[in-house]
Amino acid sequence: MIRKTGxxxxxxxxxxxxxxxxxxxxxxxxxxxxxxxxxAPSQGLRKGVVVNVEKTVEAIEKSVSQAEEVAGxxxxxxxxxxxxxxxxxISSQGxxxxxxxxxxxxxxxxxxxxxxxxxxxxxxxxxIIHVIPQEYRVxxxxxxxxxxxxxxxxxxxSVNIITASVTSVQNIVKSINQANIDVSGIILQxxxxxxATLKPEEKESGVVLxxxxxxxxxxxxxxxxxxxxxxxxxxxxxxxxxxxxxxFNIPTARAEDVKKKFGCALSDMIGNHEEFILxxxxxxxxxxxxxxxxxxxxxxxxxxxxxIIKVEIDNTEYGNQIGAGIVMTGGASLMPGTLDLANHVFxxxxxxxxxxxxxxxxxxxxxxxxxxxxxxxxxxxEHYVDQSYVMMDDPxxxxxxxxxxxxxxxxxx
Length: 413
Prior knowledge:
Number of helices: 11
Helix content: 25-40%
Distance between the termini: 36 Å
Number of strands: 18
Radius of gyration: 22 Å
Strand order of the largest sheet: 3-2-1-6-11
Structural class: alpha+beta
CATH superfamily of the domain at 200-354: ATPase, nucleotide binding domain
CATH topology of the domain at 200-354: Nucleotidyltransferase, domain 5
Largest sheet: 5 strands, mixed
């Protein structure tokens, strides 16, 4: 029997290698309990971007159907994650006179300063998906996180604006809609992952979240409890697999299997004489290979990913403010040696990020693989109606934007 779905929140992680559907229930106490997680192989995306709508729709339908069957619910809408090299992050500022009675800052003043900060010139092919407040200033006094109720004459806001390619967002929305599901919101994947994996004190002290997926690697810097900078590299675990495929002349599926069974991201952890058996392919017999040779291939690509992120972080003003270190999540973070390699690159503490403080997660789901999906439902519970992150000053804008996208999809597709 299908249950009522008014208390159900669903996150849809549309990844390069998997589609993950997380179904959660809002409890009587207002907390969240995971009911189930459905998943299906993803073949319609490349580097986080939809390249085949038909295959993406098919994978979404399989993942959603699996989740519906186990949870006993009918899924009508989801919070969807987005990633890809098209994601960009920019800083902006807004300033407005305070119009409240006796100079008291009201919600309307905050909305106006957000609007002023959002008034940036963007190319037609780009769309704002998040506007995240970082700091407010009242008559020049900075460091204010919540200005409502304060007295002053001038209100300023510094915000982090995250934009995405309009067509990339459209194609995700189109694929989900064709699976007969509405989109309640589009959330940047590292923001979602941070909801599931980071502790409030880490965000306050300064932390970098690195999410290494199949097609992309996302990173996000949190300082003083707020997202300060984010980025997406179009490089991920699939590139490691491809390097192994080329180096050892084996099929992609076999390279992925070898990576998971015998791979290590830090060559120093492998003995010089450790071996593994590479099964025969393409008419070649099975052969014994050194694990250190495999590790050298993996280390080269993983080091490249982490070094690029380090350079990008060092190029921001936050490089010396990472007091809580690095938290790594995503499937590739499970590879032995990955955390040790990150420690060598960044020279700060590094830990594994797994979904935390959520009831209903069994041992099979306590994995970095599900960080984004679990984070999406946490995001849906905590932020969607909170006027933060998702078009924070007018949640209704999300619906308008998505409706506009659907109309464009109907027109052009």
